[in-house]
Automatic annotation (TrEMBL), chain A:
Keywords: Cell membrane, Membrane, Transmembrane, Transmembrane helix, Transport
PROSITE patterns with a match to the protein in the record: ABC_TM1 (PS50928)
Chain ranges of the ABC transmembrane type-1 domain: 71-286
Transmembrane intervals: 12-37, 70-96, 117-138, 172-191, 212-233, 265-290
Membrane topology field: Multi-pass membrane protein
CDD domains: TM_PBP2
InterPro entries from the UniProt entry: MetI-like, MetI-like_sf, UgpAE/MalFG_permease
Gene Ontology, cellular component aspect: plasma membrane
Gene3D superfamilies per UniProt: MetI-like
Protein name: Putative aldouronate transport system permease protein
One GO biological process term: transmembrane transport
Pfam families for the chain: BPD_transp_1
Organism: Paenibacillus endophyticus
From TrEMBL, chain B:
Gene3D superfamilies: MetI-like (1.10.3720.10)
Top-level lineage group: Bacteria
Protein name: Putative aldouronate transport system permease protein
Main subcellular location of this protein, as a coarse class: membrane
Transmembrane segment boundaries: 21-46, 89-107, 119-138, 150-171
Organism in which the protein naturally occurs: Paenibacillus endophyticus
Gene Ontology annotations for the cellular component aspect, listed alphabetically: plasma membrane
Membrane topology: Multi-pass membrane protein
Pfam annotation, one family: BPD_transp_1
Localization of this protein: Cell membrane
Keyword set includes Transcription: no
Family note: Belongs to the binding-protein-dependent transport system permease family.
From TrEMBL, chain C:
Keyword hit for Signal: yes
Name recorded for this polypeptide: Putative aldouronate transport system substrate-binding protein
This protein's UniProt keywords: Signal
Disordered as annotated region, ranges: 31-64
Keyword match Mitochondrion: no
Signal peptide range: 1-25
Gene3D superfamilies named among the record's database cross-references: Periplasmic binding protein-like II
PANTHER family recorded: ARABINOSE-BINDING PROTEIN-RELATED (PTHR43649), POLYGALACTURONAN_RHAMNOGALACTURONAN-BINDING PROTEIN YTCQ (PTHR43649:SF33)
Biased composition (Low complexity): 44-57
Species assigned in the record: Paenibacillus endophyticus
Length: 299, 301, 581
């Protein structure tokens, strides 16, 4: 027992600094979730005489006329983003890994990561130009292919997909980085052995590369489930308009507009809390699912 | 399987010929699609304000001029805030990495090697999901006396839980034999971590370092709220105040000139470009750690 | 000048007061007003002894301009706009937001030292400013003088954290201040009077500046042989001609008659002025025949106006993509010479129209008065534009210091001891006045400046101009000289010349055409809950109708609006209205 404890104690000590940090900077302010159950008035102060109203903030949001529609929009947009946001970077990491020319590989790798660094305010202006039905290059391309013009940002049938597409485009380059790191972790000896066995490219990807990335894929999938109610405030806020409210208004823009007039922090906190609970349920479920069936603990 | 040796070989040869070409073409096309907006911004930054205002600039500068760069270069505030960002990055990234490594290592152990492992893991994980919102966060940091100091930008985000979860999974992939060998040599946990786990995880650590740097460089909201003086703004907070969407619904008299100023797109463009240049350069630099065979190499060495 | 005359009486009173009641640093010597030298003696006598907690004025009775001795310290919170950072502090290298010509005046002439608890970069309407104020309120760390909006003010008052300033205002406000702030009636004060008590000093903004005009490209009109509009039919005809008769002469049907943004409303590229032509006044509360308040957006006149817009849109006179374009995108079209007409406020020539002028030097724009269907004089809707109020933290040692600062600001610019050229808008740093935390001004100053210039113009003698009028006249002369700097101030010439927008404001004012927004209180409970929802509904429906949805959608909107809280809001607004009478 003595040896085991001596072996274990340093591990606990290593965690302590991190633990102190999250207690100080995450758990202490987390007490503020109480605001979700208050009619919070900033001027009365955080510890002031706020009025407790139970679940009223929650029911208030639920009964707002367009809540259902907003929730559906959020789920639709974010689930597409979630799936493509996992798949596209994965495919690109594998394609990049197949490139033998180091210069080309690095250049492409760096280039596709560029859009990540431009904010949505800036990209919004650019997208309006390139997606314009009258003079944009995308529609020019569609017309030259004999297809009808599409009002990507103004047509309710297309707008959610415009959001998904542009989001994937902005972020996939950055997303490939983790996958690439996972690929580098794969033992090159496995590929050599497979080549000797006469395995083709596809087989190597299927039997070596993908299994080698399994851990990262599962992990990112589970963690991204926590984002199911985040459809991307910054993006939507900068791209939507009254014309596409019906298909593009999401939970976060909705709450933003409600809060704007009167600093309704109670409502905003309630919605945040609701989102956290949903994320917790989804992630816990998949955590235990993974453990139960694959004996794999995500963390 | 059922094919003769010969036919497999010819099929493979044919595939080898067309796949790399198609792959290259696809990747290059996508890369062009991704570089387009940045080129557009660079083109605007080198154009005359009036051409930019009329939306005449596409991918090449119109009425080439360096005016916007001269102006930006002359702005003390711009360089001051870039300096704040550099300080933040220099303090924040090592701290993030250190804490990530120190937390991820114990958590990568099996539950029987570390009591309360699950409790720890969930304690860290839950901070990813729950937060008390803007006001409690602000008041807490105020009580700690961090407002208006560089530490307000560094300490609250010092424990990147997402990175910890990634790294602990990478650590789990490290062959157990290595650790056992070290144990026999009499190495403690601390030595095992730094001499075996850290060197072997360089690609993962390079990735996490990049994430930490990008996160620090791009954050703007905390700077705006926590700094009591624009002199202490990091660069992205500063840039955020000039690229906001224009709201014409209630322009008051003192905002009028502001509007005319803000509408100068060439200035915005040059500051956006210069502001993201340092962090964009970070990636190619870190790429050298993304080399295959590191795992194998260190096992041998 | 007229402006001087109006204020002369009050100022004389103040001057006598100043000279007799105070041992002030004499009158700062008029010409350059740099008070550093004169102030030195008093600064040394002040002997910084523990911030002056005891009674301040020995013997002399306290008044609007009485100096604190020893000096006191008061705290503010500030915002730093881009224009101040670039065009003021960027130019005046030895001045900062903490130490500048204004803080020195306050310190040396009033014994008030200003400190800033924090400074946030951005406009006062920006999100970050709003949030910064809210976290400050929540953390309980209030500055002595707190700039708040109506909602925040109500919250502070309800929780008893601020002083009732009724008495203080009556006692300390200088006659000039009282007059300046009341030039447009008592609404700003109604807005901050809670339970009969004045809970803050309004930072009154002039509603008159919100007047709407039709801005038209006159070079296009001339080219197509069109006359200035007299009725809405003329406006529609101009729009049609601008669309169909190829005003830019490039042989392409690529121009639009009327420009507006996806948000529909606003001080530039908005539709308020267009709607006013149909006697429709969306977004504001107006009095109906029975004397009660009704919401403009749900009145039948709006339906008519929307129908007209729909017809224009069908005729290709409106950018079919307007529904996704914000102000900066639409101004891109204006700058590129694609739009020939837009509705907006007097300053539109500075932004966005100057952008067009920069690209195409032959372009010419002019403001015209709003016209109506019948050709009768239009009513000009004026939004209530005072959105910020200074409250005083409870228990502050010298609550009246705030009012003294207000007095001093007004005096230093428009008063007799003032120096307009130094404290308001020196040519090298035009927004210098914004360095002061409080910035009251005579509400009609811009239209007065126009009147002064116009009178001088008619008399043929510009040498009589002083103050702001003089500065503006210099700008216009610079434009007429044809110089490069002059070209950049074309926008000013379009405001203050004979055919300028301010001349029309002057006419509006003289003809009593203004229709003031009647609801100026803090948002009512149902408004807080439902305004965002109702606004979304309104703008969605309006945009879609313009783009071709059947006009009957409007009737359904009115129904929905009432059901979703509009009816309740109307009731609350009318209760508030009754309480102010």
């Amino acid at each position: 027992m003595g040896t085991k404890t001596r072996r274990e104690l340093p591990l606990h000590l290593m965690i302590v600094p991190g633990l102190i940090f999250i207690i100080l900077f995450s758990y202490v302010p987390m007490a503020g979730i109480a605001i979700a159950f208050q009619k919070f008035i900033p001027a009365k102060g955080l510890f002031g005489d706020q009025q407790w109203i139970g679940w009223e903030n929650f029911s208030y949001v639920l009964q707002l006329p367009s809540f259902t529609q907003v929730l559906l929009n959020t789920l639709l947009i974010s689930s597409f983003k979630l799936i493509l946001g996992l798949l596209v970077p994965l495919v690109f990491a594998i394609l990049l890994n197949e490139v033998k020319n180091a210069v080309l590989k690095r250049t492409v790798q760096t280039t596709i990561y560029l859009p990540y660094f431009l904010s949505w305010v800036v990209l919004g202006g650019i997208l309006i130009d390139i997606l314009s039905p009258s003079g944009g290059i995308v529609n020019g391309l569609l017309v030259s292919l004999g297809l009808p013009k599409i009002f990507f940002l103004g047509d309710n049938n297309w707008f959610p997909f415009t959001l998904v597409g542009s989001d994937v485009w902005k972020n996939f380059g950055y997303g490939t980085i983790v996958y690439l790191a996972a690929i580098t972790g794969i033992d090159p000896g496995l590929y050599e052995a497979a080549t000797i066995d006469g395995a083709n490219r596809w087989r190597k990807v299927w039997h070596i590369t993908l299994p080698g990335m399994r851990m990262v894929i599962v992990l990112l999938s589970v963690l991204s489930l926590g984002q199911l109610l985040n459809a991307g405030f910054d993006q939507v806020f900068n791209l939507y308009s009254p014309q596409v409210y019906e298909s593009g208004d999401i939970l976060d823009t909705f709450v933003y507009r409600i809060g704007l007039l009167d600093a309704q922090y109670g409502v905003a906190t309630a919605v945040g809390f609701f989102k956290s609970i949903v994320s917790l349920i989804l992630i816990s479920a998949s955590y235990f699912f993974a453990y139960h069936f694959a004996k794999y603990r995500i963390f | 399987m059922g094919h003769s040796f010969n036919s497999t070989k010819t099929r493979q040869a044919r595939k080898l010929e067309w796949f790399p070409i198609v792959n290259t073409i696809v990747l290059v096309l996508v890369a062009i699609l991704c570089i387009f907006p940045l080129i557009h911004i660079i083109a605007i930054s080198f154009s005359s304000s009036s051409a930019a205002a009329a939306g005449q600039v596409r991918l090449w500068p119109v009425d080439f001029t360096l005016a916007s760069y001269e102006y930006t270069a002359s702005r003390g505030e711009f360089w001051q805030s870039m300096w704040v960002s550099i300080k933040r990055l220099a303090l924040g990234t090592p701290l993030n990495l250190l804490l990530t490594i120190m937390v991820a290592y114990p958590l990568s152990k099996e539950s029987n090697a570390l009591r309360f492992r699950l409790v720890y893991a969930w304690a860290f994980f839950l901070t990813m999901l729950f937060n008390g919102g803007l006001i409690p966060w602000y008041v807490t940091l105020k009580e700690y006396g961090l407002l208006n100091t560089i530490w307000a930008l560094v300490l609250p985000g010092a424990v990147p839980v997402f990175s910890i979860i990634l790294l602990l999974n990478f650590f789990r992939e490290v062959p157990k034999e290595l650790e056992e060998a070290a144990l026999i040599d009499g190495a403690g946990q601390w030595t095992t971590l730094w001499k075996i786990y850290v060197p072997i995880s360089k690609p993962a650590l390079a990735t996490l370092a990049l994430f930490a740097m990008v996160e620090h460089w791009n954050s703007w909201f905390d700077g705006l709220i926590l700094m009591g003086n624009p002199d202490n703004y990091p660069l992205q907070s500063y840039i955020q105040t000039i690229v906001i969407q224009q709201n014409l619904s209630n322009v008051s008299r003192d905002e009028l000139l502001n509007l005319a100023l803000i509408s100068d797109r060439t200035l915005k463009a040059s500051q956006i470009f210069l502001g993201s240049l340092p962090i964009i350069m970070a990636y190619p630099f870190l790429q050298k750690y993304f080399v295959k065979g590191i795992v194998l190499g260190s096992v041998k060495g | 000048m007229e402006m001087q005359k109006i204020r002369g009486k009050g100022l004389k009173g103040i001057m006598i007061f100043l000279i007799t009641a105070l041992a002030l640093t004499a009158c700062t010597s008029g010409e350059n007003g740099k008070p550093e030298n004169e102030a030195k003696p008093s600064a040394t006598t002040g002997s910084n002894n523990s911030g002056g907690n005891s009674g301040t004025n020995e013997g002399a009775e306290d008044g609007p301009f009485v100096k604190y001795d020893p000096p006191i310290e008061v705290s503010f919170v500030r915002h730093l706009s881009d224009v101040v950072e670039n065009n003021v502090l960027g130019v005046l290298k030895d001045e900062t937001l903490e130490n500048n010509r204004w803080t020195r005046v306050y310190e040396e002439e009033l014994g008030i030292k200003i400190v800033n608890d924090w400074v946030v970069k951005g406009d006062i309407t920006s999100d970050q400013y709003l949030q910064k104020i809210n976290v400050t309120l929540a953390s309980g760390d209030l500055p002595d003088f707190i700039p708040v909006n109506a909602t925040q003010l109500k919250q502070l008052a309800d929780s008893g954290q601020i002083e009732d300033v009724t008495e203080l205002y009556n006692k300390y406000a200088s006659p000039a201040l009282k007059e300046a702030l009341l030039q447009e009636g008592s609404s700003p004060f109604d807005a901050v009077t809670l339970d009969g008590k004045l809970m803050a000093i309004p930072m009154v903004e002039a509603s008159i500046e919100r007047s709407m005009f039709i801005w038209i490209r006159t070079d296009w009109m001339k080219k197509l042989g069109l006359q200035p509009p007299k009725t809405m039919a003329d406006v529609l005809a101009i729009s049609k001609a601008f669309t169909e008769k190829d005003p830019d002469g490039n042989g392409q049907p690529d121009t639009f008659g009327l420009g507006f943004t996806k948000s529909l409303w606003g001080g530039a590229m908005g539709l308020e002025g267009f709607m006013a032509g149909y006697n429709a006044f969306p977004n504001i509360w107006v009095e109906d025949a029975s004397g009660g308040l009704v919401y403009g957006s749900v009145q039948p006149e709006v339906r008519t106006a929307l129908q007209a817009l729909q017809a224009m849109s069908k005729g290709g006179q409106v950018d079919p993509e307007f529904g996704i374009k914000d102000g900066s995108k639409v101004s891109e079209l204006i700058a590129g010479g694609k739009i020939g007409m837009q509705y907006g406020e007097q300053w539109n020539s500075i932004y966005p129209l100057q952008l067009n002028k920069n690209v195409d030097t032959n372009a010419q724009w002019q403001a015209f008065p709003i016209v109506t269907e019948s050709g009768d004089m239009a009513k000009i809707p004026l939004k209530f534009s005072t959105a910020r109020f200074y409250a005083v933290k409870k228990g502050v040692e010298h609550p009246e210091a705030l009012i003294k600062l207000f007095n001093m600001h007004l005096e230093k610019i428009w008063g007799e001891t003032g120096d307009f050229g130094y404290y308001f808008a020196p040519p090298e740093a035009e927004s210098v006045w914004q360095l002061s935390p409080v910035t009251p001004y005579p509400l009609k100053k811009n239209v007065e400046a126009f009147r002064a210039i116009d009178a001088a113009r008619k008399a043929g003698d510009m040498s009589t101009l002083t103050g702001e009028a003089k500065t503006i006249q210099e700008k216009m002369e610079s434009y007429y000289s044809g110089s490069k700097e002059g070209f950049a101030v074309w926008g000013w010439e379009r405001i203050y010349s004979e055919e300028g927008s301010m001349g029309i404001t002057d006419q509006y004012d003289k003809n009593n055409q203004f229709l003031l927004e009647k609801f100026v209180g803090a948002p009512t409970p149902t408004m807080v809950e439902r305004k965002a929802t109702l606004e979304k509904l309104q703008n969605e429906v309006f945009v879609k109708i313009i783009l071709g949805d059947p006009i009957e959608t409007f009737d359904k909107f009115v129904e929905d609006w009432k059901k979703l809280g509009g009816e309740q809001i109307t009731k609350e607004v009318n209760e508030w209205y009754a309480s102010t009478k």
